[in-house]
Automatic annotation (TrEMBL):
Lineage top rank: taxon: Bacteria
UniProt entry keywords in alphabetical sequence: Monooxygenase, Oxidoreductase
Record keyword Oxidoreductase present: yes
Segments passing through the bilayer: none
PANTHER family noted in UniProt: BLR5498 PROTEIN, LUCIFERASE-LIKE MONOOXYGENASE
Annotated signal peptide: none
Protein name, entry field: Luciferase-like domain-containing protein
Keyword Transferase found: no
Luciferase-like domain boundaries: 2-135
InterPro entries: Bact_Lucif_Oxidored, Luciferase-like_dom, Luciferase-like_sf
Region described as Disordered: 169-192
Length: 192
């Protein structure tokens, strides 16, 4: 069971109350908006006597589009942003977390969650989010956003070859319950 943490402190408090993980979708708001909710979750978790290290956080990054040259990625995905921004302006529901008006596409790329750019730019952005959230789970959209099939597949290949190995190195998977029990058993046996 995962609790969404996109808009309300009560959502993350409820997750902490039940000892459940949260998932920050990271839609159209800046990182700090979501980081505040993640911090509140960890504080609520600890206030209930739980070890903050056990608070599991996941983070979404909307779209991902990687190209060798950042300029190519940025320009290829500009129309996708324009469609999404127009949709949000038209919906204008005035609900927190659903409508954010960025100064520009470039502003959104700098401060928003989409992973658009060269492999290094994508790694740098994930690192910024990881520093703010301390998350162990990353989700990227499997949606080509209107790009051509070949262009999308090339991006995914580059993501898998140049980004994923570094993410696995820098953000290792949390231990499974079986691994944790095995480590505890080995530590106990060594201490005895």
């Amino acid at each position: 069971m995962w609790h969404g943490s996109a808009t309300a402190e009560r959502s993350v408090e409820l997750a902490a109350e039940y000892g459940d993980p949260i998932f920050s979708a990271n839609g159209f708001n800046p990182l700090e908006y979501y980081a505040r909710l993640v911090r509140h979750y960890r504080e609520s978790w600890a206030a209930r006597g739980r070890d903050p290290q056990d608070a599991l956080v996941g983070a979404g990054h909307g779209y991902v589009y990687v190209a060798e040259r950042s300029q190519d990625a940025v320009e290829a995905f500009r129309p996708v942003y324009e469609v999404q921004a127009a949709r949000l302006r038209a919906a204008n529901t005035n609900l927190p977390g659903t409508v954010t008006f960025w100064e520009s596409y470039e502003d959104f790329l700098e401060r928003g969650s989409w992973l658009i750019g060269s492999p290094q730019q994508v790694l740098d952005k994930v690192a910024r989010y990881h520093e703010a959230f301390g998350h162990q789970v990353i989700n990227v959209a499997g949606n080509k956003g209107g790009l051509g099939q070949q262009e999308w597949e090339d991006s995914l290949r580059l993501f898998v070859s140049d980004v994923v190995p570094e993410l696995r190195r820098t953000i290792p998977d949390p231990p499974t319950p079986e691994q944790s029990a095995d480590v505890t058993e080995r530590a106990t046996a060594t201490a005895a």
